[in-house]
Amino acid sequence: MLLGLWSISNIIAILGGSPPIHTSRTTCKEILKKSGISDKDILVDLGSGSGNMVVVATKEFGCQATGYELSPYPFLMSVFKTALTKRARVHYASLHEAKLSKATVIYIYLLPKMLERLESKLKKETLKGTKIITRGFPLTGFKPTKVLTLGKEKTKVFYYRKH
């Protein structure tokens, strides 16, 4: 049963444009630390996978965090991981359904095609000053404030602030 759910999840993710790629909690912590996140922030993770970024944001930095995930297996994993965390929420929903107007930090780890589709949503729905973090690939319509190579995976992380 779990193998079937995992297989279906991978098919949904791949057809949706972004295969599941794990981000360790250590890397999540490093990414968020470099962003200057605090307990006053509201983080939204678009394509939150198994919930590591949401868990780290709430437990390590004390902020409120919400994840959006459409693949069933990672979503269920994130529900399990966040069950006892009051400041964490995960939604079984497309990232296009995400509510961004109250977010102060947005984290995205998706392929370039998906990032391209998200840019107009980010420009339209986020407030001035919102921090946007992408891992692996840049947003072409935004100018990064810094680009770092982080984590044991040595991936590029792009930091932006909406003007």
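The record above closes out task 2.4. Task 2.5 opens with a second protein, given below.
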Amino acid sequence: MTELSDKASQALRTALNAEHAAVWTYELATAFAGGSKPVADAISEATEVHEGHRDAAQRAIRAAGGSPPVAAPAYALPQQPTDQVSAVRVLITAEHECQVAWRAVLESTEPGEGGPEVRRTALDALTTAASRETRWRITIDQQPSAITTPGKP
């Protein structure tokens, strides 16, 4: 069993909830891909990455002796998608929420706390979410296309 401080454990649980929401949001967005193969492929690839981060968070929580929170049946969205552009806007929000959550994991864990994979997963999840958010912003010509401080609330 690996040890996690209460603060680190809560941050990891929050990151897991963000990943649950991201997976759900990406699955919803598939309905709005609009027949665009590049968008559909990007949604599929992102879903797999978020599932991997979700699974890693679940393993880390279990390794620390906790019970990971389960996914909700549905999640509140900042807006209801009605087309591809509005679906991408929702995906941008999901990516940003994942960045904020994983950045909190990095800020609340000490090196080696929870095993080396906790911080490695957090850094990977933060950077991939920031990159994906930028790509989605470019897809819909949203400015700025990149945010200056990924994961900042």
